[in-house]
Design goal:
By secondary structure, the chain is of the alpha/beta class. It has 14 helices and 18 strands. The strands form three sheets. Strands 7, 9, 10, 11, 12, 14, 15, 16, 17 and 18 form a ten-stranded mixed beta sheet that branches. A six-stranded parallel beta sheet has the order 3-2-1-4-5-6, sandwiched between helices. Helix 4 links the parallel strand 4 and strand 5. It is elongated. The termini are far apart. The site of L-homoserine has 8 residues, from helix 7.
Length: 397
């Protein structure tokens, strides 16, 4: 079978490396050899082993009946969407690592694949190399998924880990992370939570079997977290982590991306550095955790190649995947109960008069106190906090 790779950057070149390094074992598992026939890229790659495979027009791939499987590792919605749609319509299976494409066009591309009796798979779009989509869709398909909470962004987890270990401020650690290649030159999508927002939208769509719009998920990043917030959280015995969470409520889900204070007993507390982990609770299985490398060339390529093998084994059939295009309306997050960590310039008595029992921390910053509230809905919290002079609020898991 012949494979084409569209986009030969970090992940696309990783896919080539996995397919060539593990050629024999992959051939055994598929039952025949997989050959990379084309690489679609604007660059030429003179002297590289894949130099002669390079094409500049996606129609060369779409119109070649010998290409069975196409990998999309270009990123972004366009032109990836146009190219992927054309490949599916020409009867080619497609796998992608592109969360922007899947979050936006997943339902559409799954339908296009079904209409053309091929497959559109996207294991690498969430959690990089960590198997999470197939476990949710196949292994846990007999469960109602009650909660998915994940550290799904390596850049922000690295920054939060270093801030916690070194006591440094956000800007200092971000700069270090950029110098070490752990953060992009333009880190906005990571640090403002947009990357995590798309990933939890994909996972929630899969468990709802319906389109969840990422724009409906309230999202807060970590750029406002300071060394002082970390100091408070350490005194409270907790760590601050950027979480993407989705919890079943009634016949829908409530989702959010935000920094949370995690206690040591939480399964995600020990997930540090660039690692990702996704905690899933099924109504029959109970708790499960998926941990590993959420980004990087070979880990992400490993998941893409897993999809290639799956599609090669189902060359003549569509693997049914339920993701309907009708929009799923998510629940109002203000009804969700949690505890809240608050920094305030109001006095302890003023806090007690509205929040009653709370866990207080004093002496970190002159003229302010910190406290962790009891469990209450976010709407209750907002109403009570309105009478205080709040410096900062961070949710507590
Ligand atoms: N920028 C992402 C991260 C890459 O830091 O996790 C994987 O989607």
């Amino acid at each position: 079978m012949n494979v084409a790779i569209m986009g030969f950057g970090t992940i696309g070149s990783g896919v080539y490396k996995v397919l060539t390094t593990n050629e024999d074992v992959i051939a055994k598992r598929v039952g025949e050899k997989l050959e990379v026939k084309y690489v679609l890229d604007r660059r030429e790659f003179p002297g590289e082993p894949w130099e002669k495979l390079v094409v500049n027009d996606y129609n060369t791939i779409a119109n070649d009946p010998d290409v069975d499987i196409v990998v999309e590792t270009m990123g972004g919605v366009e032109p990836a969407y146009t190219f992927v749609k054309a490949m599916l319509e020409h009867g080619k299976h497609v796998t992608t690592s592109n969360k922007a494409l899947v979050a936006d066009k997943g339902a559409d591309l799954i339908k296009t694949a079904r209409d053309n009796n091929v497959n559109f798979l996207f294991e690498a779009s969430v959690g990089g190399g960590i198997p999470i989509i197939r476990p949710i869709l196949e292994c846990m398909t007999g469960d109602v998924i009650e909660e998915i909470s994940g550290i799904v962004n390596g850049t922000t987890n690295y920054i939060m880990t270093k801030m916690t270990e070194d006591g440094s401020d956000f800007d200092v650690v971000l700069k270090e992370a950029q110098d070490l290649g752990f953060a992009e030159k333009d880190p906005t999508a990571d640090i403002e939570g947009h990357d995590a927002q798309r990933k939890i939208a994909i996972l929630t769509s899969l468990v709802c079997c319906q389109q969840v719009e990422y724009t409906d998920i309230p999202t807060e990043g970590i750029s406002h977290i300071t060394a002082t917030d970390i100091k408070y959280s350490s005194i409270l015995g907790r760590k601050i982590k950027l979480l993407a969470t989705s919890t079943a409520t009634g016949d829908t889900y409530v989702a959010r991306v935000a920094p949370y204070l995690l206690p040591p007993e939480h399964p995600l507390y020990s997930v540090d550095d660039v690692f990702n982990a996704i905690f899933v609770r099924g109504n029959m299985l109970g708790d499960a955790m998926f941990y590993g490398s959420g980004a990087g060339s070979l880990p992400t390529a490993s998941a893409v190649v897993g999809d290639i093998v799956e599609m090669a084994k189902h060359k003549d059939m569509n693997i049914h995947l339920e993701w309907r295009p009708e929009k799923k309306v998510l629940a109002d997050p203000s009804v969700i109960e949690s505890r809240f960590f608050v920094r305030t310039k109001s006095s302890r008595d003023e806090v007690k008069s509205v929040f009653r029992d709370a866990e207080f921390v004093e002496g970190v910053v002159d003229g302010e106190i910190g406290f962790v509230s009891n469990v209450m809905t976010e709407a209750d919290y907002e109403a009570k906090a309105a009478s205080l002079d709040v410096v900062k609020m961070i949710r507590v898991k």
